[in-house]
Amino acid sequence: MDANQWLAAYAEQLGISPPTSAELETLLDLAAVAAHASERRAAPVACWLAARAGIAPTTALECARKLGGGAP
Question: Are 68 and 33 in contact (CB under 8 A)?
């Protein structure tokens, strides 16, 4: 099972749609910014915080880039 298949199956378990390709790329960028600006463990928690805040991945990435100095 690759990542896309796993995410689709997990989303189904949660009763939601999996991320689109664009959303997935944005979330991976968000995770990268968090990990490079801090520690690797910040990456998944940053994505969780964005989801909990109910904001779009693009908005979350923009906020993280402001905080993390624009990396990557």
Answer: yes
Q: How far apart are CA 72 and CA 61, in angstroms?
A: 11
Q: Is the pTM of this model over 0.70?
A: yes
Q: How far apart are CA 66 and CA 24, in angstroms?
A: 20
- pLDDT tens digits along 13-56: 999 999 999 999 999 999 999 999 999 999 999 999 999 999 99
- DSSP of 8-69: HHHHHHHTSPPPPHHHHHHHHHHHHHHHHHS-TTHHHHHHHHHHHHT--HHHHHHHHHHHTT
